Amino acid sequence: MKTSYLILIFICIPATLRTNDNPPNCKDALRDCLRPEVVWTRCYEDRITICILMTRMPIPNFYRWSVNSSNKAEGSTNSGHRVHIPAYVLQRSKRNDSNSIDNVQITMAVLNSSLFKLSPVRGSRSGEVLGQSVLAVRVGDHSVSDLDQPVRIAFRNTNVTERGTCVFWKDSENKNGEGDWSSEGCITTLIHGEFVCSCNHLSFFAVLLNSKLSVDPVNAANLGYISYIGSSFSVVFTTVTLVMYTCLRKGHSEQSISIHVQLTGALLFLHLSYLLSEWWVWHEADGAEGHVCLAFGLILHWALLSTFTWLAIEGFHLYMLLVRVFNIYVRKYLLKLSLVGWGIPTATVMACCFSGVYGIHSFYMTGANNSSSTDICWISSATDSPGVVVSYITVSGYLGLVFLFNTAILGVVVVKLWGQRGKGRMWKDWATVLGLSCVLGVPWGLAFCTYGPLSLPGLYLFSIFNCFQGVFLFLWFLALSRKGRPEHSSVKDSSCQKMMETNFN
């Protein structure tokens, strides 16, 4: 009898799962499948279906129960996942099962997302997996797909974000253990702070964050045109600004003008590196990932940080002229500012380069019936890269600090202007405020408006104001150059007089 039982087990277990003559233990299912000679995801799906619970103690992140096929099934995990399986799905699984028992076995397992290796192919869907958890769901002994009534899986929104896409794992055709995340057959909804995935099949499910922009392909194309045209104009006008400064300066130039010019240089590097990065990915297609793309990503990151730093220096210089007007002399002032403006970004990108964060970054846009992606040489969006953390700290966090500081400085300017000047000059005050807003980089704060229900208008405004920032700075520099000397005005104190000289000189 014992021999017959072992033979039966041997026949029922697929050949790829036979490691010995003993029944597979559910506790060791994952470890036994993580072998180079098998596709571990397929092995794991089969093994958790036939494995035996050899202990009464619960296995962490592993759940199994039986339910009558005429009833719907619901289950949850300790990680906060919830699964709703309609009775239709259970009855569908019974059709593929020769067993006459009415009960259907349901198995769930929570896995770490680091186990899933993305294929190094351009266009592979990448991003941060919500909670780094992947939920495997299995009903019966066979795979279930093309369901008329979807299975609903709820993921707790631990990141408190609205940007998430329900995806499932799709193995590559090479059968080398790699694959890609796909949203085919799944619909994403955000209900009461949870991502609810309605899918027409069963597989390994997850929620991918920062993987799509809330725009359709038409708006994505329009935003792309705005970016390319605006950056091209900015490259031309920032170059003209630098040439004008070189030709028109006479001896010792004003400190404010010198700072404006260095900000203009940072913007020139930014828009030029952006266009070159986009061009390289388009030109090289599938071979874009490499040392050249890494270099373009590093330069683009450096130019962006340099722009942010010089925007902060513009605000600091204005603060020195307005608030510390009677104690403004600093020895080698411009040299120290230059060391900060170019040194901090250089040190930051060198540290990031040693961390290996640069590479292809993919942005995904989803429409009603299709999805597409666009790539750029930037901070890598691969799941096994620390690029997400680096991007949050050095881009979002740094921009937030600069934006708050420069907005406060602009507020001081507005208070002083309206407090010291007559109402008849109000129109010129507004022109000054708008010009300073551009110089201080206040439109960059629109980046924080690209989330939520106003994301599409925020993206358009952000693209227009910041892609054409080089043109706006050229107009500001032209106004400063044409201003031969400050106008006489009825100013009540020397602080406000110095401020007016700063604004236009």
Structural class: alpha+beta
Calculate Rg over CA atoms: 30 Å
Overall form: elongated
Q: In sequence order, what are the helices and strands, one letter per element?
A: HHHEEEHEEEEEEEEEEEHHHHEEHHHHH
Calculate the terminal CA-CA distance, rounded to whole Å: 99 Å
- Helices, by number, come to 13
Unreliable sequence segments? 1-20, 367-371, 484-505
Largest sheet, in brief, is:
8 strands, mixed
Q: What is the total tally of β strands?
A: 16
Mean pLDDT over the residues: 79
Strand fraction equals 15-25%
Q: Could you estimate the helical fraction of the residues in percent?
A: 40-55%
Could you characterize what this model shows?
The chain has 505 residues and is α+β, with helices and mostly antiparallel strands. It is built from 13 helices and 16 strands. The chain is elongated and about 90 Å long. The model is unreliable at 1-20, 367-371 and 484-505 (pLDDT under 50).
What's the structural blueprint in terms of helices and strands?
Elements: H1 2-12, H2 29-33, H3 40-50, E1 62-68, E2 73-76, E3 82-85, H4 87-95, E4 103-112, E5 117-118, E6 128-129, E7 133-139, E8 151-156, E9 164-171, E10 178-182, E11 186-191, E12 194-199, E13 204-209, E14 212-213, H5 217-248, H6 255-284, H7 291-322, H8 333-354, E15 358-366, E16 371-379, H9 387-420, H10 426-439, H11 455-467, H12 469-482, H13 494-504
Parallel strand pairs: 5-10, 14-15
Antiparallel strand pairs: 1-4, 2-3, 3-8, 4-7, 6-13, 7-13, 8-12, 9-10, 9-13, 11-12, 15-16
